[in-house]
Input
Amino acid sequence: MGKRPRRQRAVCARISPRSSYLAPHSSFCCYEEDVWTAIARFLSGRSLVMLALTSKWFYRLMMDDSIWKFACLRDLQVPEPKKVSCKWISLYASAFDGSHSYMFRQQEKHIDWMRIGAFSLDSSQALLTERLSPVEIPEAGNMKKILKSGAYCLLKNIKTGIWIADLQLVRCPICDLSKCEGTMQTLDARHIELFLSEGYQDGTWEYQVAGARDIKGNTEAASGAIFDVKHLKDSSTSAIFDVKSWVGKPQDLQPKAKVTVHAVAVNTNLQKNEGLHLKYHVMRAGADGEIVSIRICQQLL
Output
């Protein structure tokens, strides 16, 4: 049979069974908010931004704070906090744009870093230690003596919520040699809102020493941990103390880290040395404000 005239074929197209896909009043619309909101749950932050730039409609939808809240909690793998003071898209950006605390200060001392992960502090108290063995909160009568030893540091008035942990390698603070290979390891933890705070950005908030001690003699490893006091006995926290499951073998000198829902720890095996100098640093949001950043610094003697 010969081909139908063009006009006849056009009429047939309009009345064919498939014409419902082309009808202007079709029930399907490519701009279905519920559909794209569901799709957004599977997209990375970069993909969300790229999709938002395609049109005004997508920009309005993809910039909704609920979408960035889901992406932030998903990628940080933490439970939802009770409250936040910033928009979730800003929190996501500050967590995943490659920023770390030494970019704001002491860039000349910084050598390298790695992201450990995120954890939650539900209570206003945190226990800092350089030991990776099960910890018990000291009784009131022995508290001052044990904390004075420097093995532990109990912090109060912590800003609750999501905390991000990094492992930093920096040059010795008393060394000015440009070719220094770096002799100080720092477990660096910060509240997720820290980088967005004016007091931090303008340099008003500074780190203060909360405790220090020397560990003399050959030390096999440089370790440090931060625990939420409320969750010290949780099953998830016990994973920190199962050191054989995550620290490296003695000859492995690469840093290792472990993060759980309410705790974080690091361990780096060391070559023969003369000991370590340990310092606990804290940053407060003002003179009597909440603690918003914590550092456990370990320097070879």
In short: DSSP finds nine helices and eleven strands in the chain. Residues 1-23 have pLDDT under 50 and may be disordered.
